[in-house]
Amino acid sequence: MINGAHLIVYSRDADADRAFIRDVLGYPHVDTGGGWLIFKLPPAEVAVHPTDAAETHELYLMCDDLERTMEELRASGVEFADPVSDQGWGLLTAIMLPGGGRLGLYEPRHATAYDLS
């Protein structure tokens, strides 16, 4: 039986991004050796969106209060790639990762599935 999901974030500076997730976001982790950290994520959900373009996969972190979360992250030196935009389904921004990537962050206004049993 499937009992979890494993997401991969590709990075031009994996060590810096791992340190960011460990030290700034504070996610618990295991060290599989050689600095390869695997992080425990908050509860998650998956959505399937239609597209006529190339199929891609995206990762977004969710929060209950985007403004407060951004203030807390800024206090830790986090920079944001985008100003907050109201998408109707939620408030959206993106965190700049040290390796140059972006990590979506949003406050959903839609029903969520991550706490279903």
UniProtKB/TrEMBL annotation:
Residues 3-108 form the VOC domain. InterPro entries: Glyas_Bleomycin-R_OHBP_Dase, Glyas_Fos-R_dOase_dom, VOC_core. GO terms for molecular function: dioxygenase activity. Keywords: Dioxygenase, Oxidoreductase. This is Extradiol dioxygenase. It comes from Nonomuraea turkmeniaca. The lineage of its organism: Bacteria, Bacillati, Actinomycetota, Actinomycetes, Streptosporangiales.
